[in-house]
User: What shape does this take?
Amino acid sequence: MSSVEIHSVVCEELNNIAPEVDMQSVNPSADLREALDIDSMDFLNFITAIHRRLGVDIPELDYPKLITLDGAITYLQKKLGGGNKG
Amino acid sequence: MTAFRMPSLGADMETGTLVEWLVKPGDRVKHGDIVAVVETQKGAIEIEIFQTGLIEQILVGTGAKVPVGTSLANVLSDEEAKAGTAAAVVPEAGAPPFAAIAVPRRSVGPPPPPIVVPPGAEGRMRVSPAARRFAQRLGIDLAAITGTGPASAIIRADVERIQAEAMPPKPKAAIGLNLDAMREAIAAAMARSKREIPHYYLQHDVDVTLCEEWLARTNAARPPDSRLLLGALVIKGVALATRRFPAFNGFYREGKFEPAAVIHVGVAIAIRGGGLAAPAIHNVDRLSLDDLMVRMRDLVQRTRAGRIRGSEIADTTITVSSLGERGVESLYGVIYPPQVAIVGVGKATSRPRVVDGHVAVRSIVTVTLSADHRASDGHAGALFLANIGKLLQEPEKL
Assistant: This one.
């Protein structure tokens, strides 16, 4: 899965939680919790949705790596890429 | 025969507007079924029925605004239905014309949705309740939609498709939420609270390090959809403490405090774009943490989508408010009348604490209590808060 596709899935799921936010205007290195005004429940719903759609297991310990848009895409790409190589 | 009445969804509600019927004469209903949608100041609320039996007759049509207590429909018990009047088995017998008895008092409001097409008639449109509600709110004609659901039923996705075709893409707004009306309702309730309720305030710092460690261990083995949050532990702790301190659970009405026999915890939920609702989770003290977490997730999602049920806003016995982990260290809530207490939960922060004679970095949450001085005193309040703190030292027992 390309980073463009991952980007679109991530933005779509974040938009399901914060429908009024224009994801294009979100700074890719900003803390998503601040930028989107989401709480721990929202973040858990986001992780749940990503897990469901991409099949990526995201342990709690890795949450900090997904706190920015860039970070989330890099993390997911690594996880998905690693799986495909094998 | 019993009457299904416009419920009171809060002390300040006098009337409600019937927006939609989800049942028709002849339908079987059971305790807890959602049978109608009512528009109130708090938004569109799904109304449950607490009788089991057969809808005999619908007395109030869509669009009608009626006082609390008005009979909305007649319900036959199973025995009465068996004893059998023709009206009780309308769809099969096709006896009295359904449309004629369906809306005898329809006054103002939108034209009736296709719900009044006689059941069993040729070309009856099959529409899921969610799709019908969605279409009605958007003003979309259901007749123009081709259904893709089971037996060609129109489902919500079909309505969404038509909507997407009809208008340029824009951010999805929650249906059933009227933020202006919600603001008015908050203003009225909070002004009344500050006018009538002599609040007193206490705060207590609770070490939640053990909770966080327990959560980390528990969640490590779980997929995301069954992970727990600290908030669930705190709400359970509050409910268990409430059992021991009944002076914080109940209602102050007509000059006296009425303790509640059950513990229905209202969870304050922020609505995006402004606004707040505090629907209740029932019998929290008797729920497992897993069940409580499932209810919390469901409630937050439905509240933000504007789909709260009547029973969830009518009978809250105590409220918990948390501004989340990005919020402030402490908050003091304003009691929602006629309740007598609200527990405020600040964000967890790392703070130095003395543990066994040594300074250690611990995760601390400041828990506050705003309580009605007519119903309780500070001494009991202090014990109540301390008990919440104590319960949170043994998360595995919650």
Remarks:
- Chain B is about 30% helix and 25% strand.
